[in-house]
Amino acid sequence: MERVAIYGGTGGIGLATARALRARGTSLHLVGCDAERLETAAAELGETGFTAGDVTDPDLFPRVAEAAGGRLGGLVYAVGTIQLAPLAKLGPARIEADFRINALGAFLAIQAAAPALKAGAGRGGAGVVLFSTVAAAQGFSHHASVAMAKGAVEGLALSRASASRRTPPLSPPSSSVPRRAHHRASDRRRRRAPRSARRAERAS
User: Fold this and answer.
1) Which of 4, 136, 140, 165 has CA 20 to 30 A from 25's CA?
2) Range 4-203 classified under CATH 3.40.50.720
3) Which helix (H) or strand (E) holds 27?
4) What are the helix (H) ranges across the chain?
């Protein structure tokens, strides 16, 4: 299998994905904000390159495309944020930050990798994996910002799926992986949800 690029490759979901792919013999290219953590992960995994940078920097994506090589068998965008707040306390800056990291970053990653994905596509095509949230469809309290951002991710995935016959994004209800400050490529942030939201997530 051709090399797979993983954005957020040192985060919980991204690193778990990287380990699973390496167990199948797939070579990797990891992307994250912390060069030291990337180097450690690459040494552990073997046959793994990496690029350090922030997904809010548009210049990151062409750098990744160049470093990952001209052929890719897949791309995983395991980057995200979550800022839980009532509508009255959500300002434009917070909403824009969620959109840039979750949706715009995913778009730019796919766009930059498109030639390599086309070159590396096998009989089934090159896969792209994006992550959404059940909040985008179920409308949990205090989740407006992330729901809007991940709703855009779902639209992106469906648009690409219609053109390439690939599957839509994954929407895990919750995860127990570590999350750190947002604005970081390998990081995810979660504040404690209100009880009503936590009950809704468990019910889903």
Assistant:
1) 165
2) yes
3) none
4) 12-23, 35-45, 60-68, 92-99, 105-120, 135-138, 144-164, 195-203
One-letter amino acid at 101 equals I
Q: Where are the alpha helices (DSSP H) in 69-142?
A: 92-99, 105-120, 135-138
Place of tokens 């060069």: 35
Give CA 108 to chain center in angstroms. Answer: 12
Nearest to 198 by CA among 141, 138, 145, 146: 141
Model confidence at 141, pLDDT cuts 50, 70, 90, reads: confident
Cα–Cα dist 121/144, whole Å: 36
Strand partners, 39: none
- Helices 60-68 and 105-120 sit at what angle, rounded to 10 degrees? 20
